[in-house]
Design goal:
With 332 residues, the protein is α/β, with parallel strands linked by helices. It has helices at residues 9-14, 85-91, 103-117, 155-160, 177-183, 197-200, 202-220, 270-276, 287-291, 320-331; strands at 32-36, 71-75, 97-100, 146-149, 166-169, 185-189, 192-193, 228-232, 261-262, 282-284, 297-299, 311-315. Keywords: Membrane, Signal-anchor, Transmembrane, Transmembrane helix.
C-alpha cells in the first residue's frame, strides 16, 4: 500500500507545528444591568441648549425628579469603556459618523453632540448636510405626494456612502397608516406605486424595507472596507391604558421599578436580527435594556403636547439614548 505522503512524510513530521488559536470572548453589550452612578449624567440638560430639541430637554420642562439621569448600563461579564469626548474625537478624527432614521434616530444624533461637547456651545461646528445630498422636502403643497421606495436605499445614501465611516440605521414607529396619510407617503416597489397587497400590510412593508436596505448595505461593505455599518434595534414604547391619542400614559418616575437586569441572550427585535443575520451589518441591540426604563420618557411634561396627550415614545435627554451611543462607541 502506498503512503499518500510518499517520501515527504518524515520531513512533514519533523517540521510539523501546532497552532493554538485563542479567541477573546465577544461582549454581549445588550445583556447586563442598570446601576446607580453618581458621576452621571455625562452632560447637563440645562447647558446643552445648542444641540437639544427643547421638548426633549426634560430639565428645561416641568420635570422635577432626575434620578433617571443617574443610571449607567453595566454589561454582564465584560467591561464597557468609559466614554470620554476627547478620546472619541481622536478615534473619529477625519471620519464621518452618520445617523439615518426617524425622530428616535435624531435623538441618538443629538445625544453624542452633547456627550462630546459636555453640553458646551461650540461655534466651530458646521452644518454639512448639503455636502451629503440632504435637501429638506417642501411640504407646503397639500396635493404633493412623496414616493417611499421600499426596495431601494435613499439616493443620498447610494451616492455618498463612500464618504461615511460609521453608519447607524433605524426605523420602526412611523410605519402606520396615520403617518403615511399625514406625510403623504406613497409606497413604491420597482420604481412604481406598490400593487402587491401582501407588501401593503404595514408590518410586512416595514420588514420588507429593512431587509432590502440591509441587503443592499451588505453588498456595499466589501467595496468600502473602512465602513462600519449598524442597524439599531427598535426603541420600546411604554404607553399604558391606551395609545398616544387614546389616553395612554407612562407616569412612572421611579427608576428600575419594572426591573433593572437583562439576562436574555438574543435580541427582542426579531425582525432586526433576521435582517442582519449573515451580513456585514452589525446589530446595535438596545431594545431590552431600554424596555426596563419606562421612567425615562418625556411623558406628560412636554409643553407642546395637547391636554391628556403623553409622549411615551421619545426619551428625556440626558437619558437612555446616551447609553445606546456608549454601546455604539464601544464597538467602533
Amino acid at each position: 500500500m502506498l503512503d499518500p505522503l510518499g517520501p515527504y512524510c518524515d520531513n512533514i513530521t519533523d517540521y510539523r507545528l501546532s497552532y493554538y488559536l485563542i479567541l477573546a470572548p465577544v461582549c454581549n453589550y445588550a445583556k447586563g444591568k442598570w446601576v446607580v452612578d453618581d458621576r452621571r449624567p455625562l452632560y447637563s440638560g440645562f447647558g446643552c441648549k445648542q444641540w437639544l430639541t427643547p421638548m426633549w430637554a426634560c430639565s428645561l420642562m416641568q420635570r422635577q425628579d432626575f434620578a433617571f439621569e443617574k443610571l449607567r448600563w453595566q454589561p454582564k461579564g465584560c467591561e464597557m469603556e468609559e466614554f470620554e469626548g476627547p478620546k472619541f474625537l481622536k478615534r473619529m478624527q477625519d471620519k464621518t459618523l452618520a445617523f439615518v432614521g426617524d425622530s428616535l434616530g435624531r435623538q441618538q444624533f443629538q445625544s453624542p453632540m452633547c456627550m462630546i461637547t459636555a453640553g458646551k456651545d461650540r461655534s466651530d461646528v458646521l452644518d454639512v448636510g448639503n455636502e451629503y445630498g440632504l435637501e429638506p422636502l417642501d411640504v407646503k403643497d397639500p396635493q404633493t405626494e412623496y414616493a417611499m421606495h421600499l426596495d431601494r436605499p435613499p439616493p443620498f445614501l447610494r451616492q455618498f456612502l463612500h464618504k461615511i465611516d460609521v453608519l447607524v440605521l433605524n426605523t420602526g414607529h412611523h410605519w402606520n397608516r396615520g403617518k403615511l396619510r399625514a406625510n403623504r407617503w406613497v409606497m413604491y416597489v420597482g420604481g412604481a406605486p406598490n400593487t402587491n397587497k401582501k407588501i401593503a400590510n404595514m408590518g410586512r412593508a416595514k420588514n420588507f424595507t429593512i431587509h432590502n436596505t440591509v441587503k443592499w448595505l451588505d453588498s456595499q461593505v466589501p467595496k468600502h472596507p473602512h465602513l462600519k455599518a449598524f442597524y439599531r434595534s427598535i426603541s420600546p414604547r411604554h404607553f399604558v391604558n391606551g395609545d398616544w391619542n387614546t389616553g395612554g400614559s407612562c407616569n412612572n418616575t421611579k427608576p428600575m421599578s419594572i426591573g433593572k437586569e437583562v439576562l436574555q441572550e438574543g435580541s427582542s427585535d426579531h425582525a432586526a436580527v433576521s435582517a442582519v443575520r449573515w451580513t456585514g451589518v452589525k446589530l446595535l441591540d438596545i431594545t431590552a435594556l431600554s424596555q426596563v426604563r419606562d421612567e425615562g420618557h418625556i411623558s406628560r411634561i412636554c409643553i407642546t403636547s395637547s391636554p391628556g396627550v403623553q409622549d411615551c415614545l421619545h426619551w428625556c435627554l440626558p437619558g437612555v439614548p446616551d447609553t445606546w451611543n456608549e454601546i455604539l462607541f464601544a464597538q467602533i
